[in-house]
Amino acid sequence: MSLFAHPRFLRNVLWFDAASCAVSSALHLFAGSLLAPWLGLSEALLASSGLALLVVIALASYAASCEPIPRAPVLAMIAGNWLWAAACLALLFTGAAGTLPGQAYLVAQAAVVVVLAELEWIGLRRYPVQGWA
C-alpha cells in the first residue's frame, strides 16, 4: 500500500500541519523579541502571525479529529497554506526581511506550507466522499 493511499494519510497530514503551526506560533509569540532583529522582521509582524496561526491550529485540529474528515475545513487549510506562502514570498520580494536568515526563514516557511497544501490536496482527493460532502 502506498503512503498516499493509507486511510489515515489526510488525518496525519492535518495533525502535522497543526503541530508545525503550533511550533511556529510559539516561536513568533514567545521568542518574537529575540527573533525580530535576527530575521529582520518586525516584532509586531511576528506576534500577529503567531496569533493568526492559533486559528489555523484550531481548524487543522478540528478537521483531523472529525470522523469523517469534513471537506470544507481541509479546503480552507489548503487555501490558507497557499495564501501563507504568497505572503511569505511577498515579504521576501519587498525586502521586508532585511537579513539573510530572515530571507531563508521566509523561503522555508513558503516551501513547507506549499508542500503541506499539496499533501492535503492529494489526501483530500483520495479521501472517500461521504454524505453531502
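(the above was protein one; protein two follows)
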Amino acid sequence: MKKESIRLEAVNGVFRISLTVNGVKKNFAVKNNEFLLNALRRYGYKGAKKGCDTGDCGSCTVIFNGKPALACLIPAFTAHGAEITTIEGVGTVRNPHPLQEAFVEAGAVQCGFCIPGMILSSKHLLDVNPSPSEDDIKKYLDGNLCRCTGYVKQIQAVKMAAKKIKKA
C-alpha cells in the first residue's frame, strides 16, 4: 500500500502533527525549529535523555518507524505519521521487559542516564536477531556512550536477555 503524502503547514511557526507513541495515537503541536527529543520530553516522555544534543551520545535513542534513531537530530514536524517507541513503552516497574530485568541483574545500570538508549538499541537488535554474537551486540551499542562502565556488563545483559526471551 502506498503511503499517502500529507503536506504540513506551519501556522505561526507551529505544526500540528499526529503520531503514534508507544502504541497510542497522539497529537502534538511542535515548533518549526523543534527537535523530536524536546517535543517528546515536553509531552511527558522523559525517558529519552538530553545528553549531547549533537547525536554523539545515544541517550536520546528511540525506535522511530521500526529502527533506532537519535531524537535530538530529528526535526519534530517530520515525525508526522511516525510510530515511535520510547523507553516508557518497553516495560513497566511491575512488568519489566526481559532486557530491563537483565540490565539490573547483570549490574549494567549505574547512573542510568545512558540505559534507555542502550535498552532501545538492544531491543531492536533482539527483535531482528534473537541470537546475536558479541560483535553484533557491540555494533548495536556503538553510539550509546556510558561514562560509568566499560560496557562489559551491558554486553552481558544483552546476552542474558536473549536467553530469557528464548525461554519465554
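Reviewer note on protein two: The radius of gyration is 17 Å.
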